[in-house]
Amino acid sequence: MRSILPALSACLLMACAATPAWPDAAESEALSQARSQSELTESLASQMWDWAEVGYQEEKSSALLQDTLAGEGFTVTPGVAGIPTAFMAEYGSGGPVIAILAEFDALPGINQTASPVREEVPGKGAGHACGHNLFGAGSVSAAIAVRHWLEESGTPGRVRIYGTPAEEGGSGKVYMVRAGLFEDVDIAMHWHAGDRNTAAANTSLANRSAKFRFRGISAHAAGAPERGRSALDGVEAMNMMANMMHEHMPQDARMHYVITSGGSAPNVVPDFAEVFYYVRHPDPKGVEAIWARLEDAARGAAQGTGTKVDWEIIHGNNPLLVNEKLARMMDAKLRQVGGVEYTDAELEFAETIASTFDNPARDIASAAEIQPFEVSLGYGSTDVGDVSYAVPTVGLRTATWVPGTSAHSWQAVAASGTSIGYKGAQIAAETLTLAAVELFTNEDLRAEARKEFDEKRGPDYEYKSLLGDRDPPLDYRK
Ligand SMILES: [Zn+2]
Ligand SMILES: [Zn+2]
Question: If you measure from the C-alpha of residue 205 to the centroid of ligand 2, how many angstroms do you get, rounded to a whole number?
């Protein structure tokens, strides 16, 4: 129980923030448990960094996290939602269910050693350029710290880890939400690697992606061109129309593509070509509206080039529904834990990385700071969005990367495999632990968060996945 005295002095000092920012007995016990696990956080993160397994193929990473949790007395349910590498693990009984999400997929085509200069690992096809090795490690470490605190304090409640595969373009969490796996959860927490420490309530864009496949007729490109119909022409015509659409889209929309197949020899009219599109907008209805125009462009392109087209939805995410009550609580916990302090060797690493940035880099010293709290629109997308429409959800970012580092860069891969990344993951683990203690013990906060969630979602809200009813694309990285 908190005494009145620190409450009063905190009010005087801090204009009485909604959540007190000093450790009470429960918090300091949980925090010292979380701190004692920094080696565990590092060991999990470094193993997953080495493996760098891509979406839906994270067999070793998923097994490592499951085995670690089982060893700590968690009840593990593997292979949930029809996804072999997705899992749930729970400890405790009765009380509220506080969930923590854990990602672990790497990105294909980006490969880097844990060095501050550009250097590839020979033969390695993927890398942790989004720091999901840290995400998985920090979250599991937090769940284990909370589990010890639940046991030692005799607090009723359950801490549950969701092992969520294939965040990058695979929307693993959407299938888990669609399967109803979050229905009994009170609050869900997540975090992400980053170049700064912040619990700002950042929304994200809804998105949808699909592969558009054009089929034509092959022929000798010089000997019998009149007999051919180029599937690549279909792709190019579609892209031209999509590029014109860009001028007539809402300000906050985003649309981008890559050609994933365009034929193999200029003297063969390609009978197959494929283009992979992403469409994003703050509102799912905005995505749907642009999407309908993009489908028209695909049909028009096929008609005009004498080809046929069909498409497969690959992934789709709802935007993040931020919960300001919870975000302010997380902000207070993050401030209690503090930022990343570099050793001399880490500072040297950071300076070398920073010297590779074209743009003026952020101040390296900002890794030790916590950014001001704000509510803002972010332009990325995440499958945490679907979780945030199923249950009140809150997250944070920590400075696992050198300030100024962009996600999906070799600089992000490098730091994610060093003590800088591990320290950031540990800060997340400690912050999530403190947040969990608050959520288990503060019934009013849970009720207020639920009220805000219900109001923001609206009384008539019906969940709709942006990827429709397709099955998980378990082979999308093969
Ligand atoms: Zn990413
Ligand atoms: Zn990510």
Answer: 14
Residues 434, 30: contact at Cβ < 8 Å? Answer: yes
Distance 426 CA to ligand 2 centre (A): 17
Determine whether domain 4-204+319-457 maps to CATH 3.40.630.10.
yes
Query: What is the three-class DSSP state of 317?
Result: strand
Given a contact cutoff of 8 angstroms between Cβ atoms, the answer to whether 210 and 313 are in contact is yes
- State residue 281's pLDDT score: 98
Instruction: Summarize pLDDT for 269-289 with one digit per residue, the tens.
Output: 999 999 999 999 999 999 999
User: Domain 206-317 adopts which CATH fold?
Assistant: Alpha-Beta Plaits (3.30.70)
**Interval between CA 192 and ligand 2 midpoint (Å):** 7
Q: What is the model's pLDDT at position 26? A: 85
Q: What is the pLDDT of residues 173-187, one digit of tens each?
A: 999 999 999 999 999
- Rounded to the nearest whole angstrom, what is the distance from the C-alpha of residue 105 to the centroid of ligand 2? 9
Residue 306 and residue 67: Cα distance in Å, rounded?
55
Rounded to the nearest whole angstrom, what is the distance from the C-alpha of residue 444 to the centroid of ligand 1?
A: 34
Compute the half-sphere exposure of residue 323: CA atoms within 13 Å on the CB side of its CA. Answer: 32
Strand partners, 256: 278
Higher-pLDDT residue of 10, 188 = 188
Amino acid 4: pLDDT: 37
